[in-house]
Amino acid sequence: MRRLVVIAATALGLVAVLSQGPVSANGRPPAVQDQSLKALAARHNLAIGTAISNDALAEPQYKAIATQQFSSVTHENAMKWESLEPTRGTYNWGPADALIDFAKKNNQKVRGHVLVWHNQLPAWLTEGVANGTISKTELRDLLKKHITTVVKRYKGKIWQWDVVNEAASDPWDSPSEIHLKGFWAQNLGPTYIADAFRWARAADPHALLFYNDYNMEAFGDRGPSDKVWFIYNLIKNLRAQGVPIDGFGSQGHLGTQYGNFDAFQVKEVLDAFSDLGMVSAFTEVDVRSQMTAGVQAGDSNEINPRLQASASNFSVLLQACLLNRNCLSYTVWGFTDKHSWVPTWFTDPPEGLATLYDENYQPKRAYNSIKSDLVFAGPPHVQPRPRR
Ligand code: XIL
């Protein structure tokens, strides 16, 4: 009898514990063992990714963070055409394959970057077109061959492909009306976009195919110089013609000197693409700051506001992603200031401080801000997204 009472009391206690959620004696929630970004994001079915530089992977600290914090990886450069086919007809697959193997070993998904872009093209291709030895017809055939070869090689191994990257002009270009710009539009005309997506789909029917671009955070006035509006309409029209564009990639390269968006503004763009039946992702997030003389001299009056503004921008993009269930992943463009593209690319004025970790691999305020976002987000506004 006493045993039965004990069992009943234990069962009741268990029910009580389960219904209230676990609590420890001091009233705090129990310690959560794995507080990595990827573990915290997993409960939202959200992937947290990073671009990876193959060279940096040789550093143990870099490798440890890349493995422990991130559930998705992107080749920062190794899958670009100039890296894959530096000499016509000779592919250099080694570095690209190595990261695919690394991802598999670490149970990480891969965002493939990038199939069609006007930058980082092999010299034999751009020079051949410039000197007329490669005709327009041949160029189209070469593009088809490139997409087919690369996508087939990695068939089944790439979760999301950036098929077309940065096709649109910016409002500061001339003319200021947004238009298709760059090598591919100039040489093949606007139809290359539909072609590229169709060729990619034929080579791997299951990879999610993305259009990827920068300055895509918020709609402007929806007029001729509004880049987001231009891309939205371009994709809407292409999809209406049956072009297989599954995803909208918003790169998310921000700068603290430009002011902030808010999460609901950014969500509006993701929602617009969702309404077209598409998924989305943040694909290259970093938030740079100007490295004034004061910053370089270590003046905290100048450094602190930059670190705070950077954190806030990282957070806004993640919050927007959390608010839209079709936003599948949030990828940062490198995670440490030690290996960020920013200081080499933005030199006049010098910029930096753009990533989640400092040069000594210490997490910055930005890291803790997005960690908080993942911890605090929950129903009803943030629901787990479907697994894909
Ligand atoms: C950058 C890399 O980070 C650099 O290492 C490289 O020298 C130039 O390209 N948008 C993109 C990325 O889509 O491919 C770019 O990556 C950054 C801007």
TrEMBL record:
Signal peptide: 1-25
Ranges annotated as spanning the membrane: none
Keyword Hydrolase: yes
UniProt KW Cell wall biogenesis/degradation keyword: no
GO MF term list: endo-1,4-beta-xylanase activity
Gene3D superfamilies in the record: Glycosidases
Family: Belongs to the glycosyl hydrolase 10 (cellulase F) family.
Alphabetized PANTHER family for the sequence: BETA-XYLANASE (PTHR31490:SF88), GLYCOSYL HYDROLASE (PTHR31490)
Record protein name field: Beta-xylanase
Protein source organism: Herbidospora solisilvae
